[in-house]
Amino acid sequence: MGLTTFIIYFALLLIIPLWAQSRVKSAYRKYSQVPSSSGLTGAQVARKILDDNGLYNVRVEEVKGTLTDHYDPRSKAVRLSTDNFHGHSVAGAAVAAHEVGHAIQDQEEYAFLRFRHALVPVASFGSNASFFLILAGILLSSQGMLLFGIIAMAAAVLFQLVTLPVEFNASNRAMEQIVSAGVIRNDEERETKKVLNAAALTYVAAAVVALLELVASH
């Protein structure tokens, strides 16, 4: 790889995630100031959609931080950041519905979600060790170690790629659920989609970066 190509790759690895994070933070900041017509908090939105889908065993909990929202399949809990848990915004409703989308996926044993869970240990190892394995393979002129490092990195890339359908499906479920539950009006659908689409960009960016790293390792 030439110096110019290396610089381009390095710049892309830095710029793409920063751009995606900027987009999601901008959309979230904007629509967290727009109150939802339903007047429901994010916690109430999550609880309503969960109950509508018979997921009475899934808890809705508050978690500290900003945009730390997630679904924990082991604890069967939808965890919402403080602002989304207590807030009444369009952004909060969108994020809450998205995380409930993962809970519904879990209930239905959505294939890509199960596959992603199975990949977690391998992908975690790949993310942490692949760079050092590849570097050691180059320095020690060990083809075996280099190949092992590339395979480990490929596992991490596969995890990022499998994450895409999981997240897009959760967002689609979120839109369906908040519309059918009457959480948002028709004129609020556009704002809700913007929040969900901006969040999805972060996963697309992560997948692109992972692919670039894999290509650069060859």
Commentary on this structure:
By secondary structure, this protein is mainly alpha-helical. The chain has seven helices and three strands. The protein has a three-stranded mixed β-sheet with strand order 1-3-2. A hairpin with a 4-residue loop joins strand 2 and strand 3 (77-81). Helix 1 (3-31) runs antiparallel to helix 7 and helix 2 (42-52) runs parallel beside helix 4.
In short:
The chain is mainly alpha-helical and 218 residues long. It has helices at residues 3-31, 42-52, 82-86, 90-107, 111-139, 143-180, 189-217; strands spanning 59-63, 70-72, 77-81.
List the helices and strands and how they pair.
Blueprint: H1 3-31, H2 42-52, E1 59-63, E2 70-72, E3 77-81, H3 82-86, H4 90-107, H5 111-139, H6 143-180, H7 189-217
Parallel strand pairs: 1-3
Antiparallel strand pairs: 2-3
Helix pairs in contact: 1-7, 2-4, 4-6, 4-7, 5-6, 6-7
